[in-house]
Amino acid sequence: MTITIKQLQKGLADKQFSSVEITQDYLNKINQKNIDLNCFISVTGELALKQAASADAVIASGKGSVLTGIPMAHKDIFCTDGVKTSCGSKMLDNFIAPYDATVIEKFNRSGTVMLGKTNLDEFAMGSSNENSFYGSVGNPWDTSRVPGGSSGGSAAAVAARLAPGATGTDTGGSIRQPAALCGITGIKPTYGRVSRYGIVAFGSSLEQAGPFAHTAEDCALLLQSMSGFDPRDSTSVDQAVPNFSVDLNKDIAGLKIGLPKEFFADGLDSDVATVIETAISEFRKLGAEIVDISLPNMGLSIPVYYVVAPAECSSNLSRMDGVRFGHQCENPIDLEDLYKRSRSEGFGEEVKRRIMIGTYALSAGYYDAYYLKAQRLRRLIKQDYVKAFEQVDVILCPTTPEVAFKRGEKTDDPINMYLQDIYTLSLNLAGLPGMSIPAGFSQSMPVGLQLIGNYFEESRILNTAHKFQQVTDWHLKAPEVK
Amino acid sequence: MSRWETVIGLEIHAQLATSSKIFSGASTAYGAEPNTQACAVDLGLPGVLPVLNTEVVNMAIKFGVSIGAEIGKRSVFDRKNYFYPDSPKGYQISQLELPIVGVGRINITLQDGPNEGQPKTIGITRAHLEEDAGKSLHEAFPSHTGIDLNRAGTPLLEIVSDPDMRSAKEAVAYARKIHSLVRYLEICDGNMQEGSFRCDANVSVRPMGQTELGTRAELKNINSFRFLERAINYEVERQIELIEDGGTVAQETRLYDSDKHETRSMRSKEEANDYRYFPDPDLLPVIVTDEDIEIIRNNLPELPEQKCQRFISDLGLSDYNAELLTSSRELADYFETALALAPDQSKLLVNWILGDLSGALNRSDLDIQSSPINAAMLVTLLQRISDNTISGKIAKEVFEAMWQGEGSADSIIESRGLKQITDSSAIEGLIDEVIAANPNQVAEFQAGKEKMLGFFVGQIMKQSKGKANPGQVNQMLRDKLKA
Known about the structure:
By secondary structure, chain A is an alpha/beta fold.
């Protein structure tokens, strides 16, 4: 059964139940099911009940806001004051930040309750959640399959109904791809919409935080709370945040939806394609105008992304040096030994691979050929979208080329793993907002549909998604988790 | 004349005098307990982000317009990646491709060589903003290294000169000129001991007449102008000797050891880091408009060269004296403070400030700001000369006592009984005594030996312990002897 945030909010307001009651209920479910799913790294039961009790007091005093008392899970990449922030890495297994990420601060101010912190690919690098120091995560629809990544823990937790909403971060698809694979709704906003302060950095120019929930309507509420200019993040945009909920029900008759031919080409699973085709006909029925478009440079996104993201990560992860915090090797003989062993022991294989790639791409003699060229091509990718949005209002495509794959299936084949993000990466390179919504099933596994909006037009894709969810019930289907 | 020509370029790091750091709100005050002025951003904790302190941009522009440089309308912060414990993020935020200040120039006066005293223009390649690193404390803990991150994130303006200098003295003149300028602009406190103003020197030699540059060594760890001169001279000699002995100069970084007075290799180019510079994705490009630049230009303080010209044209000072007085803002301020109190005494003030006062400061190795005699005290002393309370000669004794901290000019004159004798009857008495005691000399004078007058004056001054007014003595003595 699916209980949305909207429903919880009503129940709290109508005094059907208290925040403490629902929080306890979620904690009980986590307690039962997390052993199999492994979607939480930390469960903060005591803190949650304390926050729920004060939320109840606020609600009782009549001063509650829309999210007061709503339990949530946070990806373990957001720094939380006094609670471990591991980022899925041995390197930060002992790291407790002395500050809250801006996103956490904002949710605290909204009065949400933190149930715990969710599993992820180490430092958000991965598409299957198999790169976590804390072990892989099961897909609630079939635990022998992956939930996607990197925000696999958050997506699995929401899909398994262990939390009504959760946060994630998306550097190349890390919200949209796990949302698709787990059959839930997730949105990555425009770059700059949400502050990155307090998010352990991987690809600074690419990543944005966003929410997971069951519905576009709930995502609108959560995104509302997360968004806004932050003086502590120079790349956050000083622009008024619209009310994401007001336009949800706007008629989409006449809305121009573009289908990029490049995202319906080779490599797309035919069953997935069929599901998406069916969804497209729903949008036609809603009066949308479907337009074929082309994004000719999309073939460049994977090579460009795998230069830019590793380059930034190689530098961002340099601070993990075993000196001031994090894993430190035992008995270092000298400084170089301290660095080498602390980092060799602290980082996992995928992280090391990307640090190596990025270091190489930035090295003297290779910088122009790799990093600089990648940045030039990145502009071409962005231009494709800019041109496309001159013709259409929203772009639609599958979120992933196939449904959730088996755990272990692609771990030895990084290229194949990288291809899972082929439809999502380009948005991060361009900085555009995008979301994934459940659109049907293939092999009894959920299929995600991606909606891409123009810059700062989150409202429009939320509206498009909401209208779809009004006439379909894929988003309400729940897996049976033992 | 040497067969070798020396070529020097300087990289000066001027710590910008902001109260908070370049990318965080932590204080930049010097001397606090280790790690008490380092916030999460300075510590490079996971998830934190830099936010530019825009004051540093204004300071850099101030410098840029003062050296006639083109200001970067769009400048970019880059990451310079390297591992070191006092570099907490594993990279330093600096500017590589697009610095805030472009090509500029500054004039110096040559201190040696065939054109001594002549002006020379030194080119400035660029000046860029960057953050300072922390400090590694190797001595404090046995077998461990302490890290103090108070300095991490302190704003620096790195000023890079062209390889335009041809002697150590020339390099020092340039460094002093930059030092004076940044202090005039109030963008750097210039304290070299505390490391607020640091010079690295790129030094090479080449056979006279050769246009191509020789291989350079970069000298670091120089914390005074005196050491800058010595380090360069040592290095030049070392390189010439090396080449003349058939060796070649290695491109390397060399540390100057002021105790041993030598430079020694720190790291060679082969071991040098590949810094893997790339634009910092956490910071936006800095956009500067023409209006921003104009506002800063219009609010610049009077610069040393303008002040110098004013002293020459308005006060009639010599070029030499005007240049000396404006060599530091503090010295010029001292002079101008004194001048405001005694507007008609400019010549006397200049003589005392550049003479006795500068001499005393040099002997005690003090800056003008630390002078035990402030401008008002000096003016009082000079007023006692002009109102005939004391003679110029006695004034030197009073000055010495003031320097030793014995109090104001008036109290010293009073307590030591140095007040000049101007009472004509007292002077007359002294004259009479001396005339009576020296009849032969009187006769010589009256026989036409005019210079005997000096003898009598000397005797009278001696009798009065220097306190008799010399002008009165002269006049009255002449009258008496001729009578």
